[in-house]
Design a protein that fits this description.
The structure is a homodimer. Chain A is of the alpha+beta class. Chain A contains 3 helices and 6 strands. In chain A, helix 1 runs antiparallel to helix 2. The termini of chain A are close together.
């Protein structure tokens, strides 16, 4: 969401802020934007990431490189996200999502269904992603896949 | 770990307590013990669980039923756990693990490699599991699988 369209953060609930951070992550993914991906992650050595079928990536440098690699090998991606649960506990939050990821890479069209746990931490009022665990789901997924992120 | 062998909680760091709760979860799994599994989970409607290849389970009742179903269909299970990361943020914590799960079910021996994100919350000084996301890993796993839980 472009910053000029964001609602006034003072009027948003913490849950709305977490969901906005979660959406910012998928917007970064759809836009194949390293700049947006760098803005949503907390750039610490202890952040972690599991892409579907990948081994655990440890630390921001490894996580950043993985996104760079994915973006360089992808020409188009659309993600339909279904939010299943949001839980906030003090300065931590996690979101469970289903994703239908449609990609074009090396002229091949592919569509995968993914189950995701996204963990966020709050710093100075802003929620940052600190953990992303995505794993393959049997297709089709069990519930409304939600709407495509593109407005 | 039998309670008489537990260290004095007052002398343990929060990280040690989280790791103990994490081990209690795997002990419950190995012992096929609903009583131990019930003791480690926070029994709330918002807890969540993803078994490898399953859809998301929502709420303690669904989570409890899944473990009961797994335990009833399993005659033997051993889990080798590798701890990859522990992160504590206020009253939340999460642990990344690799698991090698060896089972005997319906007279068939099976061995699977799993990547796990376990989330805990602290209540009155005790850490409870609130989220378990387990997904299949390509075998063999990339690092020291750790030692078998059985002492």
């Amino acid at each position: 969401m472009p910053s000029e369209l964001r609602r006034n953060p003072k009027l948003m609930t913490e849950e709305e802020k977490v969901l906005e951070a979660n959406q910012d992550f998928y917007t970064a993914l759809q836009d194949l934007s390293m700049e947006k991906m760098e803005a949503i992650w907390l750039q610490e050595s202890w952040v972690r990431c599991v892409h579907p079928g990948w081994n655990l990536l440890e630390g921001w440098e490894a996580v950043r490189e993985s996104w760079q690699q994915i973006f360089e090998n992808t020409t188009f991606v659309r993600v339909a996200v279904g939010i299943q649960a949001v839980r906030i506990e003090n300065t931590s939050a996690w979101v469970c999502c289903t994703e239908k990821i449609s990609t074009v890479a090396e002229d091949r069209f592919d569509s995968v269904y993914v189950q995701t746990t996204n963990i966020f931490e709050r710093r100075n009022g802003t929620w940052y992603m600190v953990h992303h665990h995505a794993s393959a789901l049997p297709a089709p997924w069990p519930q409304d896949p939600g709407s495509d992120l593109v407005q």
